[in-house]
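The instructor's notes for this session suggest beginning with a concrete chain rather than abstract definitions. Hand out the sequence below and ask the class to guess, before any prediction is shown, which regions might be ordered.
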Amino acid sequence: MSSLYTPIEIRKIKKVNLRGGTIIDGFPSVGLTNAIASECFVHSLKTELVAVLDSPGFPALSIIRNTTPNFPARIYANEDLKLTIFASELNLDQSMYYSMSKIVLQWAVENECELIISAAGMPASEEDADQVTEAQVYAVASTEQSLKRLANAGVPQLSNGSVTGIAALLLNEGVWMNFDVIVLLVKVLKDSPDFRAAAAVSETISKLVPGASCDIPSLLKEAELIEKNLRKIRNEQANPSVRIYG
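After discussion, reveal the predicted structure:
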């Protein structure tokens, strides 16, 4: 019998103690907010590459940084903060969302983590356009415990709406498993760049995870380049060839 979804393999590099910790989902599924925010934490905190992800469903892609080839889907960790960061440049097909959400949950269970944080863009309506001058963050949570986390951090909850992509699957499974999942939704103008939304998400994550800091000024300074490179990589997946960029 064929599998209902494409398998994803976790190739572990180093064993770390992450018990009681938090996972940041950095897989872009709705916009690039997640990917940029995760990059900010990877570079702002002292993190180690502890695993890579591989799958026959992934595009044939290697990310070259400082002359070193990298898998396009990686897991970083800060053992002191008990923090895991999933980071990726992959433009996953929607058919891979289910598999990826299962892998994030698998990592959470195997490493006894307590919280998963994901994020997605939420376009402002036309009637809100005149009032929205910067990215606004709302949140939805899977459990009473995660709702308390939001209240303690002063993050407003989304009363009505919908969530899509990997974040949605994580949220639904969190409800089913009674596992703490928080999805941050960024209300932004249609033409607003993703890196400003990522800065707002990063700031909110810092409130939810003690000790997890992101260098927001540097993010705002450098994230435009990060976003351009991520978009170049997305274009490369659609038009395979060798690319060189800074």
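Then share the key points. The beta strands are 9-12, 22-26, 48-54, 63-65, 68-70, 73-78, 83-88, 115-123, 136-141, 180-188. The longest helix spans residues 216-238.
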